């Protein structure tokens, strides 16, 4: 059973940047796509980004285009989410997930989930 653990969240000022990490253990990520979701207080969980196993195909939610970059290091069983120019509306718990395809990652059903890391964008 794959277990996902996120890290790197915290408090950052508007316009700042953060790099989230997601480390996998207890299994192999072989051929699994990975991605990120987020959930703000009082809102539904929403898709942020996904990346395929080879790391040569990435897809982003419109709010992430140009500001968020998803990447992965399969040797380290880790994926990353680099976020720049952060805005208060990016405040949310960010969740890592893995599934058999980027399409399934985006759908947000089944697969593997981490427990989340909090990102707060505020002065």
Model description:
The chain has one helix and eleven strands. The chain has 123 residues and is mostly beta strands. Strands 2, 4, 5, 6, 9, 10 and 11 form a seven-stranded mixed sheet that branches. It starts with a strand and ends with a strand. The model has no long low-confidence stretch (mean pLDDT 95). The longest helix is centred in the C-terminal third of the chain and has 6 residues, at 102-107. The relative contact order is 0.31. Strand 5 and strand 6 form a beta hairpin. It has one helix at 102-107; strands spanning 3-7, 10-12, 18-25, 33-39, 46-51, 58-60, 68-73, 78-83, 92-99, 112-113, 117-121.
Q: How many angstroms separate the termini?
A: 40 Å
- Strand runs, count: 11
Indicate the structural class: mainly beta
Give the integer mean of the pLDDT values: 95
The stretches of 5 or more residues where confidence is low (pLDDT under 50) are none
- The global form is globular
Helix content: under 10%
Task: Give the DSSP E fraction (strand runs of 2 or more residues).
Answer: over 45%
Largest sheet: 7 strands, mixed
Tally of individual helices = 1
User: What is the H/E order?
Assistant: EEEEEEEEEHEE
Q: What Rg, in angstroms, do the CA atoms define?
A: 13 Å
Could you give a short description of this structure?
By secondary structure, the protein is mainly beta. The protein is built from one helix and eleven strands, in the order E-E-E-E-E-E-E-E-E-H-E-E.
Give me some keywords for this one.
globular; 7-stranded mixed sheet; 4-stranded antiparallel sheet; 123 residues; mainly beta; 1 helix
């Amino acid at each position: 059973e794959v277990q996902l653990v996120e890290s790197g969240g915290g408090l950052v000022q508007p316009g700042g940047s953060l790099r989230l990490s997601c480390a996998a253990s207890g299994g192999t990520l072989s051929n699994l796509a990975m991605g990120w979701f987020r959930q703000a207080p009082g809102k539904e969980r929403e898709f942020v980004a996904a990346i395929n196993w080879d790391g040569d195909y990435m897809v982003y939610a419109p709010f992430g285009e140009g500001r968020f970059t998803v990447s992965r290091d399969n040797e380290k069983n880790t994926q990353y989410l680099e976020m720049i120019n952060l805005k208060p509306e990016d405040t949310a718990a960010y969740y890592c997930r893995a599934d058999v395809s980027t399409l399934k990652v985006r759908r947000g059903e089944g697969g593997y989930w981490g427990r989340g890391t909090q990102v707060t964008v505020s002065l």
